[in-house]
Specification:
Blueprint lengths: L1 E7 L4 E4 L1 H11 L3 E7 L5 E7 L3 H14 L13 H10 L2 E7 L2 E2 L5 E7 L5 E10 L1
Antiparallel strand pairs: 1-8, 2-7, 3-5, 3-8, 4-7, 5-6
């Protein structure tokens, strides 16, 4: 079963989407299987990380900015090469096991939509497979 969600994002941020993914799981009625979360954008991504301390998001964005700064020698005409690099590093999808009708996430884990070139209107997909 495939579900589409839409987001309006900030300039650069990680938005927790765990509740939306859980909503898709409940709608699907699946008890066992896998959940794929996919982002179809080249300057955004999906990741799983800590959701208890908001400083983790801040630190992740800071680390990515230091690892992939804007550089004058970039040639991409849109001027967002660093956003493309960050998105490639983070990845466009995450997979979570479904067990007993629940996402098998760790105690402190959340699922995040990663915006690196906003603000924008974005979408992501949740595909639930199993039984």
């Amino acid at each position: 079963m495939l579900y589409e969600y839409k987001l309006n994002t900030d300039a650069e941020n990680l938005t927790e989407i765990t509740a939306m993914v859980r909503e898709a799981l409940v709608k699907s009625g699946m008890r066992e299987g896998t959940c794929l979360i996919y982002c179809p954008h080249t300057t955004a991504g999906i990741t799983i990380n800590e959701n208890a301390d908001p400083d983790v998001v801040r630190d992740m964005l800071l680390g990515l900015a230091k690892a992939f700064p804007d550089r004058p020698e970039f040639r991409h005409a849109e001027g967002n090469s660093s956003a493309h690099l960050k998105a490639s590093c983070v990845g466009s999808s995450a997979t979570v096991i479904i067990d007993g009708g629940r996402l098998l996430l760790g105690t402190w884990q959340g699922i995040y939509f990663c915006e690196f070139d906003g603000p924008r209107s974005r979408r992501f997909y949740v595909q639930i497979t199993g039984k």
